[in-house]
Amino acid sequence: MTYTVKAMNKNNTDNKSNFFASVSRMKYIDRWALMRNSWPENLSEHSLEVAIIAHALCVIGNVRFGKNLNADRAAVAGMYHDCAEILTGDMPTPIKYYSEEITDAYKKVEAVAEQTILKKLPEDIRPVYEKIFFSSDDENEEYMRKLVKAADKISALIKCIEEEKSGNTEFRSARATIGAAVDALCAKMPEVDEFVGEFMPSYESTLDEMS
Known about the structure:
The chain is mainly alpha-helical. It contains 12 helices and no strands.
């Protein structure tokens, strides 16, 4: 403990990096800001769920469809997929996708935010995290990133289901819209179709029903 205190009290700014302290602030970023929530969801909670689902989608792809996807890498990419929102906050979907101009502008802001966060890392380990944040030209890597995005949609759908289960009708329209988006992904990605068919019904159940 003494060593830790000494390390924290060092005034050597050359050795100071606030990357992980910044990442830890994901727990202060609330999602669904424009809607009444029965239970608030923060960015940290959402990112963990996306990581879990992305990992599962890759496992399904590998085991059931003979693919060669890096499930562990997908999980880590899911953990960091919304890191830009530490600086930008959670942009409500109706605004983010209101027009192509706004969407393109937000993507540029998001890219700047990601680079700003990455620059908080020491230079020697930064390249490792750049590979987590950004996709390569590898075909398997690109597909894995698409599964992370699919996991993001599935997580949003789960939130809508949980809110409706609690009697909150505020999420009814969002559930229909996001559900349609997930259905479209099911038609394109067999891993998503398998996950939705096999695991999503349980999210409608109570704890007693699952027991």
